[in-house]
Amino acid sequence: MLIMAFSVRLGWLPSGGRGATAEWLGVPWSWLTADGLRHLILPAINLSLFKVSLVLRLTRAGVREVLPQDWVKFARAKGLSPTRVVLGHVLRNTMIPLVTVLGLEFGSTIAFAVVTESIFAWPGAGKLILDSINALDRPVIVSYLIVVVCLFVTLNLIVDILYKLLDPRVRLEAAT
Length: 176
Hints:
With 176 residues, the chain is mainly alpha-helical. The protein has helices at 2-9, 34-66, 70-77, 82-119, 125-134, 138-166, and strands at 22-24, 27-29. It has a domain at 49-166.
């Protein structure tokens, strides 16, 4: 639908491809040129639209749950500014479930980039894995899967570390 609306009907953005590239550190990059950025807009919107709406809904639900708590009312009664109450107290307490969802959704964004790259004819890991599947190139398929698994493990480790930073009640103590 994005291609139909913004490329075919309106003609504002290109429907596919990578666009012009500029070389940096010996690697051609599309996001270093204006044409490359124009080619990047639709795939980026396609990958992020659902994720952003999910995070916004989760944040809104968490904030609505935390706002009526007594300690938020106490912070307001102490005379803290509304910005400080929201940023320092409310959002900090809604970040635990949000960090979990962000970690999982970032991993799924990487996994579903294969479909987006195919639709928008973007040369990347998605094209590589699809070409490898069609050619039955098992070493490339296994390597891709190992990289994706390592990415998910790393994301889960980062989420666990962020838990410790966000919630002081989460302690890494030895069992006694």
